[in-house]
Hints:
The protein is 94% helix and 0% strand. By secondary structure, it is mainly α. The longest helix has 92 residues, at 17-108. The protein is rod-shaped and about 145 Å long. The two termini are 17 Å apart.
Amino acid sequence: MAEKPKRRLFGLLRPGKTDRASSTAADAGALWSVHARAQASTRESGEAAQRIASNIAKQRGALDSIGDRARAVSARAQDLGTSFSRVVDSFEKLSLVALNTGLEGARLGEQVGQSLQLVSEEVRLSAARGAESARELSAALTEVSTELAQVTSSLDRAREAAAEVAQEAGRVGASSSDTERALGELGDRMKRATGSDPETAKALADAVEHGRAFVTALGALGEKVPKSILMGVLRPVLEPLAKWVGDEEGGEEA
């Protein structure tokens, strides 16, 4: 009676039903492995999309702050340009007053009006230099204001592009969530169809690999060690396995 389970055990180690079972276990393990990789990739894609959306939100906040400052500086530059235009007008008026003063000094005669003419000329020259400097500053401020307006426009376009990227990231995140749910449903269907789960499939695949390694080692030892010694050493391992195989075979025959 003890030999029958042993014969069945070694019979199971021969090609046939065992090969088909191991192939099925390997296929199930590979299927669950692909499913796990798909879930991991989908989860990573969703998390990456969330990180992208978060970073873009921060960048948009920075762009908003820079844009507000640029607009404020541009408005200030325009105000200063207007102020310098008024300064130019004031210098021109001062120059006109100095000219009139010089003409009045000329009518007063050389003795009385000479000093007045000298002061008038000095004032006119200073007013001319001041007006020219004010014009240059006004022109520079106008250029700065124009450049800032272009910067503001570029920032607005960057904000729009960031908003579009954020929307795309949101869509990717939503698609990843949908895909993850679909993979979860697929996993449930796979459990019902294969009667296994990822842990069981992995355990079966590991058992198959260990079994193959055992058979290979057994064959190598059989060429070097007498069978009686080999069976004596392996008996503590083979007897529980033989009993289990015998119980399974008995259940199938019944």
